[in-house]
Design goal:
By secondary structure, this protein is α/β, with parallel strands linked by helices. The protein has a single domain (about 1-240), classed as Rossmann fold (3-Layer(aba) Sandwich), CATH 3.40.50. The protein has helices spanning about 10-25, 40-55, 80-85, 110-120, 160-170, 185-190, 205-210, 245-255, and strands at about 1-5, 30-35, 60-65, 65-70, 100, 130, 155, 180, 190-195, 230-235. A 7-stranded parallel sheet has the order 1-10-9-6-2-3-5, sandwiched between helices. Strands 4-8-7 form a 3-stranded antiparallel sheet. Helix 7 (about 205-210) links the parallel strand 9 and strand 10 (about 230-235). The longest helix is centred in the N-terminal third of the chain and has 18 residues, at about 10-25. The model has no long low-confidence stretch (mean pLDDT about 95). Bound molecules: 2-phosphoglycolic acid. 2-phosphoglycolic acid binds next to loops.
Length: about 260
């Protein structure tokens, strides 16, 4: 794992956006895995700025989001479809037909899950998957206890997730109880995983995901099994990392050597 510790939230967004932009420059037909929540917003703002400033072209890029609340339609104000349009899609020259999220209003969850997995496969797989991190160690809506071999399916949300997401809905009672989400294995199939976390509330989950045992109790810990993971955190989210000095040293070494662009971590 490559662990990048940045000074603040803004830098986390900038570094993440630069990694996504470099991928799109390398391959204009890239497949990007995207995430919702508060964490990726800084990255999306910076990606929009790069698009405007440098004219980075997204017309052939394909996107697949991690998840969607189950039981709500794409035009629901709190759906992740709506979130992505508001935070990113409307500002880039993406083709709407190339932007995919699972449908929360599908009548058959198994058929919808299979359709979503097939879509990712047919696109050639995901080049970079952007990930936020739940305080309980979830990635996507893979709550603690999720099989590390899981694929897209409907999952019940953990109490802590409902409480954390109540801010978007106004009250915990209004948060849907389940979501359709890529599985842990679907995420691990991406060629590069980019995990972002900011703020002291994520410090415990980051330490468990990066330095704890690989366990279904912390689904993000499965990323330790992936050969190309970049973790970008601010100082607060890095507060409980035991190997902090090593990560800083390794990052300095990368900057000073030609390995900076090396994909293997
Ligand atoms: P947040 O959520 O970015 O809103 O903190 C992250 C997550 O739950 O995956």
């Amino acid at each position: 794992m490559r662990v990048v510790i940045e000074a603040n939230v803004q830098r986390v967004g900038e570094v993440a956006a630069e990694i996504l932009a470099a991928q799109v420059r390398r391959d204009p037909r890239s497949v990007l895995g995207l995430a919702t929540g508060g964490t990726p917003c800084g990255c999306y703002r910076e990606l929009i700025a790069i698009h405007r400033r440098d004219g980075l072209d997204f017309s052939q890029v394909r996107t697949f989001n991690l998840d969607e609340y189950w039981g709500i339609s794409p035009d629901h104000p709190q759906s992740y479809h709506t979130f992505m349009r508001a935070e990113l899609f409307q500002y880039l020259n993406l083709c709407p037909a190339n932007c995919h999220l699972p449908r929360g209003d599908a009548s058959d969850s198994i058929a919808e899950s299979e359709r979503y997995e097939r879509g990712i496969r047919d696109a050639g797989g995901i080049d970079i998957q952007l990930l936020g991190l739940g305080r309980n160690g979830h990635i996507g809506f893979n709550e603690p206890g999720s099989s590390l071999a899981s694929r897209t399916r409907v999952k019940h949300l953990a109490r802590q997730t409902i409480d954390d997401n109540a801010r978007f809905f106004g009250a915990p009672e209004l948060v849907p109880r389940s979501a359709i989400t890529m599985g842990v294995q679907t995420i691990l199939d991406a060629r590069h995983c980019l995990l972002l976390a900011t703020g002291i509330s994520k410090a415990g989950a980051i330490a468990a995901a990066v330095e704890g045992p690989v366990t279904a109790a912390i689904p993000a810990s499965a990323l330790q099994l992936h050969p190309q993971v970049t973790v970008i955190v601010d100082e607060d989210a890095a507060a409980e990392l035991r190997n902090r000095e090593y990560y800083l040293l390794a990052e300095q070494g990368r900057r000073e050597s030609s390995e900076y662009e090396s994909p293997q971590h």
